[in-house]
Amino acid sequence: MASWRNWSGSVTARPAAMATPRTLPELQSLVAGATRVRVAGSGHSFMPLCETDGLLLSLSELEGEIEVADDRSTAWVPAGWPIHRLTAALWERGLSLFNQGDIDKQAIAGAVATGTHGTGASLGSISTQAAGFSLILADGSRVVCDTENEPDLFQAQRVSLGALGVMERVKLKVLPAYRLRESVRPAPLEEILSAWPDLTARHRHVEFFVFPYADTVLLKTLDPVESGDDGPPSAWLESAALQIASDLAATFPGLAPALQRFLTSAMSPATRAAPAHRIFPSERATRFEEMEHEIPAAAGADALRAGMAEVRARRWPIIFPFEYRAVAGDDIWLSPMNAGPCVSISFHQYAKMPWREAFAGMEAVFAAAGGRPHWAKRHTLTSEDVLRLYPEAPRWGAVRKQVDPGAKFLNGHLRELFAFSL
Ligand SMILES: Cc1cc2nc3c(=O)[nH]c(=O)nc-3n(C[C@H](O)[C@H](O)[C@H](O)COP(=O)(O)OP(=O)(O)OC[C@H]3O[C@@H](n4cnc5c(N)ncnc54)[C@H](O)[C@@H]3O)c2cc1C
Predict the structure, then answer these.
(1) In this structure, which residue's CA is closest to atom 49 in ligand 1?
(2) Ligand 1: which atom is nearest the Cα of residue 167?
């Protein structure tokens, strides 16, 4: 029996078989012939989305190329390509993605499947950039869907956790290639929270990191520039210092607050410019576990204050910072951003340290603020919660049942989440 594990090491799987098809007919026959199927992208999800005792597929070797539309506003791209391969190939063709998240290691299909997002008040998740899908359904047949052809399947597929079929190619909205200037600087937390509406209006992208035991943030803004291709990124969060502090906190948890104040004091201003796809991603060398909620924009500041107060009151030895971002609202049935503009608050813990108790406490804080969790990051939603939080979940469930009545694409976790669709 094969074995598989996710990036943080918190999810392991023992699939009956693993396969890396190279051609479309091979992929179709593998799907048609299996009883249970999951697809893994790059394994960066913290929830057991790729877990299976059936067939686990990887599309990393599937043949395919980028096809740019004549008007250059969209491109069909191979779904299994990691984002870094995709964005480099788009750049060679004079194109960029609208937005990207913190890293570019994910498969583009993995990112779309879970509503992965970056920051920017006018910018939706990567799922909002998907304009069409080529999908392999449970019987091995291929269907192409978009707003005109099979519109319900298209809408359901935009955030679907791989529960409807295997994305073979994705049609993405793209922009003419652009460069970004990154500026980072330390700033007082309350000053930045007060200025947040102004900051998000003035900058195409803005976010900050703040340790729960510190009151100074590292503010990061990205804005388009005409030229510039400067050196390496500022390495604050990727530094050896964070790794050493994390290992120290794992051995001496009581040191976490002092270590955080030390790391905060090491923050310094920096700027650089480069092609957008080289500015968006960072290295995340120190492995962590993560939860994240998308919270109505107006409730974001108080939710962060409450989260920080909870860590301090319970004296949890959290060694990683909160991350605070802006995401535009959307109209995707299962998107946590579909009720309007959101603030995204992420809560991390070093992967080698206990996280379950603190995550349970933080989930309650974020939920009380009206937050809905990122599907790929730690949460405890049940099928009843999904129905309560997502008014369009029954429509999504009807599509799921129609395209996969035998639930070939559901694993144990997805059966619990989507029991209403069985
Ligand atoms: C270090 C780190 C940084 C991160 N930064 C961000 C961030 O900035 N913003 C954010 O929103 N999230 C972020 N995430 C979360 C991450 O983007 C998601 O977990 C994403 O889904 C991972 O992509 P993946 O390719 O690793 O997919 P996996 O984790 O391998 O799979 C995710 C889902 O996609 C499905 N899937 C994959 N390929 C296909 C396919 N071809 N067809 C159908 N379904 C498919 C899988 O079945 C599964 O349900 C981060 C995670 C880590 C570990």
Answers:
(1) 161
(2) 42
Fold agreement between 4-58 and 67-176: no
* Separation between Cα atoms, residue 103 and residue 87, nearest integer Å: 12
Residue to substitute in 39, 284, 287, 413 for testing ligand 1 pocket (most ligand atoms within 8 angstroms of CB)? 39
Residue range 67-176, CATH number = 3.30.465.10
Global pTM reads 0.97
CATH number of 179-373: 3.40.462.10
Q: What string of pLDDT tens digits covers the 422 residues of the chain?
A: 789 999 999 999 999 999 999 999 999 999 999 999 999 999 999 999 999 999 999 999 999 999 999 999 999 999 999 999 999 999 999 999 999 999 999 999 999 999 999 999 999 999 999 999 999 999 999 999 999 999 999 999 999 999 999 999 999 999 999 999 999 999 999 999 999 999 999 999 999 999 999 999 999 999 999 988 877 666 655 577 888 989 999 999 999 999 988 888 888 898 999 999 999 998 888 999 999 999 999 999 999 999 999 999 999 999 999 999 999 999 999 999 999 999 999 999 999 999 999 999 999 999 999 999 999 999 999 999 999 999 999 999 999 999 999 999 999 999 999 999 99
List, chain by chain if needed, residues with CB within 6 Å of any ligand 1 atom.
Answer: 7, 38-45, 49-50, 59, 79-80, 101-103, 106-107, 109-111, 113-114, 116-117, 161-162, 166-167, 284, 374, 376
Nearest CA to ligand 1 atom 33: 110
**Closest by Cα among 260, 219, 364 to 306:** 364
Q: Which class would CATH give 4-58? A: alpha beta
The answer to whether the Cα torsion of 405, 15, 135, 108 is positive or negative is positive
Residue among 4, 37, 45, 417 whose CB has most ligand 1 atoms within 8 A, to mutate: 45
Q: How many CB atoms lie within 10 A of CB 274?
A: 19
Euclidean distance between CA atoms 279 and 120, whole angstroms: 14
Domain ranges of the chain: 4-58, 67-176, 179-373
Ligand 1 atom closest to the Cα of residue 414 is 49
CA distance 156 to 136: 15
Which token pair is 236?
A: 């604050």
